Amino acid sequence: MSTDLDAATATLHRELREHALVIGEVTLTSGAKASYYVDAKRALLRPAGYRAAGELCAALAVESGARAVGGLTMGADPLACSAIGAQGGEGLLAFFVRKERKEHGLQRWIEGPVLDPGTRCLVVEDVVTTGGSTVKAIERVREEGLEIAGVVCVLDRLAGGSEAIETAAAVPLHALATIDDVYPERAES
Predict the structure, then answer these.
(1) Which residues pair with 175 in a beta bridge?
(2) What is the DSSP string of 52-66?
(3) Is residue 156 within 8 Å of residue 136, measured between CB atoms?
(4) Which residues, including other chains, have CB under 8 Å from residue 43's CB and lie 6 or more apart?
(5) Contact at 8 Å (CB) between 44 and 36?
(6) Rounded CA gap, 28 and 30, in Å?
(7) Tens-of-pLDDT digits for all 189 residues of the chain?
(8) CA distance 97 to 109
(9) How far apart are CA 77 and CA 57, in angstroms?
(10) Do residues 122 and 97 lie in contact, with contact meaning Cβ atoms separated by under 8 Å?
(11) d(CA 106, CA 127)
(12) CA 40 to CA 44: how far, in whole Å?
C-alpha cells in the first residue's frame, strides 16, 4: 500500500473513532442487541472521512478492474460518490441499488448511469454485521447482468458478515477497518 493510502487508512480509522462510534445499547438491523454502534455516515459525510474513503475505494476499484462502484442505498451512497470523486477513480461510474423497485418512471432497481451487461462492479457498504444488506446488493447487481469485481466495506464488525458476503460474491470482502481498529477495548465482539 502506498504512503498516501496508508495516510488515508489512518485518517479513516481516526474519523470513525472520533465521529462514528456510539457507546450504548442499540438494536442492529438484524434485530440483535449490541452495546455499541458504528454510524459510519457520521464519519463518511465529513470532509476528511469522505476523502479518505474515496481514495481507498477508488484504489480498490482500479486494482480490481471495476468500472462502476455502488451498493445498496444508503450505506453505499457516500462511498460510491467519494470513489468517483477521488483522483484515482478517474473513469469510474457510481450506482445505487434500491431496496424496492421504483413504481414510477423507469422502474429501475439500479439507479445511475446505464451500465452495460458484464460491467465489472465494486460493491461497497458502510458497516457489515451479518452481511445481509451487502448480499442483497450483490444478488441484485448479478440479476442486472453485471459482474462482481470485488466487495468493500468501511467497517467490519467481525460478526460473521464477511463470510456470508464472500460466499455470495465468490470474492473476498476487503474491510477498510474492523471494529478492532475502531473500538479494541469493547467487551463484546
Answers:
(1) 153
(2) HHHHHHHHHHHHHT-
(3) no
(4) 12, 15, 16, 18, 19, 20, 49
(5) no
(6) 5
(7) 577 999 999 999 999 999 999 999 999 877 888 899 999 999 999 999 999 999 999 999 999 999 999 999 999 999 999 999 997 778 899 999 998 877 777 778 999 999 999 999 999 999 999 899 999 999 999 999 999 999 999 999 999 999 999 998 898 899 999 999 999 999 865
(8) 6
(9) 12
(10) no
(11) 30
(12) 6
Q: Which are the contacts of 104, defined by CB distance < 8 A and separation ≥ 6? A: none
Specify burial of residue 165 (Cβ count, 10 A radius: 0-12, 13-18, 19+): buried
Per DSSP, helices labelled H in the chain are 3-15, 41-44, 47-64, 77-85, 132-143, 161-169, 179-182
**Which amino acid, residue 122?**
L
Q: Where are the alpha helices (DSSP H) in 77-156?
A: 77-85, 132-143
Specify the amino acid at residue 97.
Answer: V
Give 174's strand partners. Answer: 152
| Contacts for 6 with CB less than 8 Å, ≥ 6 apart | none
Catalogue all structural domains in the chain, each as residue range(s) with its CATH number.
Answer: 3-182 (3.40.50.2020)
Sheet holding 93-97, edge to edge: 110-111, 93-97, 68-72, 120-128, 147-156, 173-178
* Rounded Cα distance, 119 and 171, in Å: 16
